[in-house]
Specification:
The chain is about 35% helix and about 10% strand. The chain contains 6 helices and 3 strands. A 3-stranded antiparallel sheet has the order 1-3-2. A hairpin with a 2-residue loop joins β2 and β3.
Length: about 190
């Protein structure tokens, strides 16, 4: 009996190779760095997971850079504040940047996944209260961010892409992704 094929990683599902992979990985790392560099590693992974969840959602652009920079031309009305806040996006902390790059690569290779974040597509910092949270199901809080998924979108299990839904067909011949690997490098 032939072995079932392992599920595709997000990078494979998106057909990312070479320069396109590098570009997507850079956009994802920038979102992690500028949105969550001071957060615990789990919080940074959660931000990466939200970006990828949006990529695989029919409600957002179908590529990583498109998701990260959606509406960046609208001052303070974009999806990720760093993209439209008018502050130059300069990497000043090499250690945090290296960590963000590592998390971006691991997320694209499906080596990290946080079950409590699941298919969350939204988050906000604890010090703001956006109007849209009334329509959301709160999933989890990591560090200074609270993660959500819209009630009307269900749990996301019917969406193509990655995550727990893509692991359902996985057999013991393929190791599951690590939930997280906490390493500190400063």
């Amino acid at each position: 009996m032939p072995r079932p094929k392992p599920p595709l990683t997000p990078a494979q599902e998106l057909g990312l190779e070479g320069k396109e992979r590098a570009k997507a990985e850079n956009c994802l790392a920038r979102a992690i760095y500028f949105e969550a560099r001071s957060e615990p590693v789990r919080g940074q992974i959660a931000v990466a997971q939200v970006v990828l969840n949006r990529v695989f959602s029919p409600y957002y652009p179908g590529d990583i850079c498109g998701v990260v920079y959606q509406n960046a031309h609208r001052r303070l009305s974009c999806q990720f504040t760093f993209a439209c806040d008018g502050i130059p996006d300069i990497v000043r902390d090499r250690g945090s940047w290296n960590r963000a790059q590592r998390i971006a690569k691991q997320a694209l290779d499906h080596q990290v996944w946080l079950p409590d974040v699941a298919k969350s597509t939204h988050y906000h910092a604890t010090y703001v209260r956006p109007y849209w949270i009334r329509e959301m199901r709160k999933m989890v809080k990591h560090g200074q961010h609270i993660f959500y998924r819209p009630h009307r979108w269900g749990d996301g299990s019917d969406e193509v892409g990655w995550g727990v839904a893509s692991l359902v067909t996985q057999k013991t011949t393929t190791p599951p992704p690590r939930k997280i690997k906490l390493t500190r490098r400063n």
